Amino acid sequence: GPAPKWQQLIEEIDSLPKAKQKMISEMLSALIVQARN
Questions:
Q1: pLDDT at residue 1 in the model
Q2: Is the Cβ–Cβ distance between 9 and 21 less than 8 Å?
Q3: Rounded to two decimals, what is the model's pTM?
């Protein structure tokens, strides 16, 4: 599974309000796309 650091991040994100979760997931998606280029 994910490294402990990622696990902790996921749990923190999971405790946020849905609107914040959506914002973070969109930001992460954009960062991943950039990282692949």
A1: 67
A2: no
A3: 0.69
User: Which residues, including other chains, have CB under 8 Å from residue 14's CB and lie 6 or more apart?
Assistant: 21
**Cβ–Cβ under 8 Å, residues 21 and 13:** yes
CA distance 30 to 23: 11
Q: How confident is the model at residue 9 (pLDDT cuts 50, 70, 90)?
A: very high
Q: Outline where 1-37 has alpha helix (H).
A: 4-14, 18-36
Report the alpha-carbon distance of residue 5 to residue 36 in Å, rounded: 21
> What is the C-alpha to C-alpha distance for residues 6 and 11, in angstroms, rounded to an integer?
9
Q: Which helix (H) or strand (E) element contains residue 16?
A: none
